[in-house]
Amino acid sequence: MQFTQRKVRLTEMTAETYFPDTSTLSDPKVLEALSALMSNARLAARWGGLSPAARQAHQAILQAFLADGAPPPISQFSAETLADLGRRDLVHARGGEIALAYPFSTRPTDFLVRVGGVKVHAICAVDALGTAAMAREPAEVTCLCPTCRARVSLGVLADGLTLDHASEPDPRVWTGVKDVGACAADTQCKSMLLFCSPDHLDAWKRSQPPSARGFDLSLAQGVRLGAATFRPFLQAPAKGAAP
Ligand SMILES: [Zn+2]
C-alpha cells in the first residue's frame, strides 16, 4: 500500500475553491477548449466554496483510487458529505458504493491508466490524460479508438505535461462541448474521445449531428487540458505551498 507516500498534506482547513491550473497553458486553442468546458457558472456550482470535510473526502477518495485502483468503502464518509460531492458532480455513488470520482471510474471504460503499478479506468480521454498531473507520477494511458477500436498507448511524465511516447504518430483528442446536466460522465465525457488518427476522428465526426460542437486537439494539447483540469484536485489548498 503506497497510500502514505502519495498522501498530500492538508494544511489549510478553510473552505476553498478549485480552479483549473492555467499556469502551464499558453496555447490559445487549449485555453478556449478549457473555458468552453468549464464555464464560470459551472465552476462556481461545482468547485466553489468546498467545505474542509468535502475537500478531505474528495482527496481521500482520489488517493484510494491511486493507491488501490478502487474507491474506499462508502461507510468512511458521511451521507451529507457524499451528497455535497454528488451535487457538485465530483463524486457519484451507485448501488451503495462509490462509483466514480473524476477522473476515475469503477466501471470499465475505453480509457485505462496505469500509475504507480495500479491500473484504473478513467472516465474519458481528458481524464486519462490529466491523471499524471494530478498524481504527480508518470502515467501509462491506453485508449481505444472509437472508430476502429485500435489500442492507442502513450506515456505522460510525472510533470503531467510531457509526452513520453505514443504508439501512433498523430492521435487526436476530441473534446465535445455539450450541455452537461447533473453528471458530466453521462453527457460531456461521452464525447471526450481519443482517436488513433485524424482520419478516424473525421470518420466519427461525419456520424455525428451537424450541430455537434467541440475541439480537435493534438495529444500534447489534450495532455495540457487534462493537466489544467486535474492538477488542482490533489494540490495542497491554495494558501499552502504546492508540494
Ligand atoms: Zn482508429
Tell me what you see in this structure.
The protein is an alpha+beta fold and 243 residues long. The chain has a domain at 111-229: Beta-Lactamase. 33% of the residues lie in helices and 22% in strands. β1 and β2 form a beta hairpin. α4 packs across α5 (79-87). It is globular, with a radius of gyration of 17 Å. 37% of the residues are buried. The model is unreliable at 1-14 and 238-243 (pLDDT under 50). Bound molecules: zinc ion. Residues 145, 147-148, 150, 195-197, 200 line the site of zinc ion (ZN).
Summarize it.
The protein has 243 residues and is α+β, with helices and mostly antiparallel strands. The chain contains 8 helices and 11 strands. It has an 8-stranded antiparallel beta sheet with strand order 1-2-3-5-4-6-7-8. A 3-stranded antiparallel beta sheet has the order 10-9-11.
